[in-house]
Write the structure tokens for this entry.
Amino acid sequence: MNNALKPSRRAFLRGGAAMAAGTMAGAASAADGPDPLITDLQDWASYTGAGVDETPYGMPIEHEAHVVRRNVEWLTASPISSINFTPIHALDGTITPQGCAFERHHSGAIDMRKEDYRLMINGLVERPLVFTYEDIERFPRENHVYFCECAANTGMEWAGAQLNGVQFTHGMIHNMEYTGVPLRSLLQEAGADTSPDKWVYVEGADASSNGRSIPMEKALDDVLVAFKANGEALRMEHGYPVRLVVPGWEGNMWVKWLRRIEVVDRAVESREETSKYTDVYADGTARKWTWVMDAKSVITAPSPQMPIRHGAGPLVISGLAWSGHGQITRVDVSKDGGITWETARLGKQGDAKALTRFYLDMVWDGAPMLLQARAMDETGYVQPTKAQLRAQRGENSVYHNNCIQTWYVSAEGIAENVELS
Amino acid sequence: MSNSLNVSILSLFGGVTAILTLALVVANRDYGQNRIETLEARVAEVQDQATASSDKARAEADRAAALEAQIAEVQAAAQARAAQGLNLTAPAPTPEGTLGLGRPAHEEEIAAWDVDVLPDGRGLPEGRGDVFWGEEVFAEKCAACHGDFAEGVDNWPVLAGGFDTLGDKDPVKTVGSYWPHLSTAWDYINRSMPFGEAGTLSADETYAIVAYILYSNDMVDDDFELSHENFGEVEMHNAQGFVIDDRPELEYSQWRTEPCMANCKDEVTVTMRSVFLLETPPEGGSVSVMNLASVEGLPSFSADGPSFIPEPQAMPEPEPAVEPEPAEDVDEAQLLIDKGEKVFKKCAACHAVGDSAKNKSGPQLNALMGRTMGSVEGFAYSQTFKAALAEGRAWDDAALTAFLADPKGFMKGTKMAFAGLKKEGDQAAIIAYLSTFRDE
């Protein structure tokens, strides 16, 4: 048992009111007498359950029906060109199930059959080629777990604490195991000019025809042309049958329904890499080509959607950390708004450019807390506070907000999104 | 392969011999001088041909030998690979190190898909459109979302104005105020607009729309015509407004340090509470509600913890899992049948219903209502059901309800081990459900 499980000295400060609050929602009802869930024969212990032919493809049990992607209607003009949020408050571990992994479409999710899929590679190549889906599966393939974070994740929070729920402040992220072919294999197949001053322009097949320019160095490094996620086919909303995976870089570059790869001698400067996904400074100049998603972390429970209902006593603080620069090496947690920090335990050694789960096991004394998490990655980068980010960039920005998040946890265990002095 | 090669070489030699024989026979005959000369010439010609043929035959023989040597070499290599346990069926790598997958792209295919336009204008098709026509096209195809004057409707993007707002707290980022390249506008409109009808604009229409957007931003006069020829002459207001990612110099250099762990601040207070509370209804989505709570009354924090413990308030109860209210037009009877289907899971281990239902450890239950008790063919009933059959008793609402509520009480001696449905309403639900299965 480690130090975290010892009651803190704050326990001596708390008043009788906190004690009452702490035990209010506390221990199970067992003290009142034998639990009929144990002493009475239950239906499920007597009657037979569902047969193997009931659900050929299983959905989560109905009692988990609230764990779903949700959108905030007023954020965008139309749900066709919009975003929803992963219910990260209710998930644990690191892998995001496809069915609740956030979606971002610019012209809606399209229904395309594998048989109708074509991928063209052209431009500065010796052999412009067209591949079918079957062709893609004949290249040597790899498996990697990567996070995909929208550049606008936490974007609403630049101006102040806005949305009360980690699903809404940090849910534009998912983390899956991809199966795919390195982009470099396709470039090689076409005899592409891969000199370092060249770019790879990638484009989707949907009506938005989202296109992004990727510098050749990244294209040759770890970019995947992926067709499976978490072992099964990509979901329609994630680009079935084939999407691009651009590890550690902003989600908009992960072009879905990938239909074309063009080798070019300069960045195309498409709409999504100039008018969008660029960061405006306080003086009105803007920063472009901000592709890497810097180290970031957030406590997923307790959080506004996950209040503490058990009262004082053992409490697991749980959260996620990630960095587009590589592995997460350490996560610190503060319970007093950043005055003191203690190092959390990693669920397991994190993969590079993938979500890492952290835990802080503690005994809660029932006193209010200001909970924060702070990630460090393998480059030694320390996740900044909101004040540090604002000092650098001002408050006009939308994208690439990786600030430290604060939850105020009341004596009743209610958590709320707040900003601190 | 080598066998067929030998056969063809033999037949070649045979042909040459026949030609030589014919030539000698012809030469020994005594015809006239002219005839002789002609024949001599002919013989010379045939001899030349014979020489050429034998040369060719030798070349073929050499080639055959070379091929045989090559075959031996390949076979030796294959044996060597097999000896090393390598896969004999794997395709040999092609000279360029490719797999030979995919097929060449047709020019028409590249032309159809490769339509992106670069900042220097490469990729632009020939065409032209002026502001006047652009206003018409814009009104027809764009204004529903972007407004007649490109000012934006609802949350749809504003395309005009916003100059000198980029340093404001809410910068207005339009084609005029923010976009650094005109090519981006042409390319995006051409490929992705109008929303819901992408890819339907002609090149001329796109030139006209872009001309009108420039006009809406006061960047050109009303008599302006945009074309592939003058495209490069348009100067964008914010062309110099972008720097390339400088986080490494400005941010990483400062933030790659060992962080503070204790006494990092003296005191911390809450300065702002969440603007919106978000309700998450069971039907999905979210409902944003203004948060009226104030920061007044929250404790400040120091290294000793919170300054005070606020008066506890009641913890909101978790939202009960409410059964969705049935809509008024929902068929009550159907709801009962649906409920019955669920309840029937308790019976399904022993009783089958539906198409080709067979007896299991209990009799099949198709067309149960009105059926004589104990009458299903092939099922070994208990004595009590055999007696009921003899008496001619039939299943009806009352009998089945009583039986389901207390099987052994209603039919003393039944083999059915089921304890009975104790919840009120479950019997009626099952009866409603079973009534949907009639005789086939």
